[in-house]
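WARN retry 2 of 3 for item q-0093 after timeout on previous attempt; input resubmitted unchanged.
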Amino acid sequence: MAYVSGPARHHAAQCLEDAGWGCGYRNLQTLASHLLLPQHPPWLRAGLFGGAGGVPAVAALQRGIERAWAAGFDVEGAAQMGGRLRGTRLWIGATEIAALLRHSGVPADIVDFLG
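OK item q-0093 returned
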């Protein structure tokens, strides 16, 4: 098991356009900025976001999550969201992020802390 710990670029809302709904995407961008660092294995960096090598914009993340859903990742979540994120202001959370990472070949677990 590996834990993400180290440098990352913080991605905050850059405009009022995604205020109130963009935080899940910004969290994913921050996580991605760490995973794309050279200290990580080449296979990981090559698999993320089709090997683009950079942190995608929100629209590209929405497309990526939709592709993960179409490939069978998080079928229940896809159904709850109507199978579509592009152009919406729907909130995403851990399950959508995990689906995108898993679809990219990155092992990802979701841990729920009770209490």
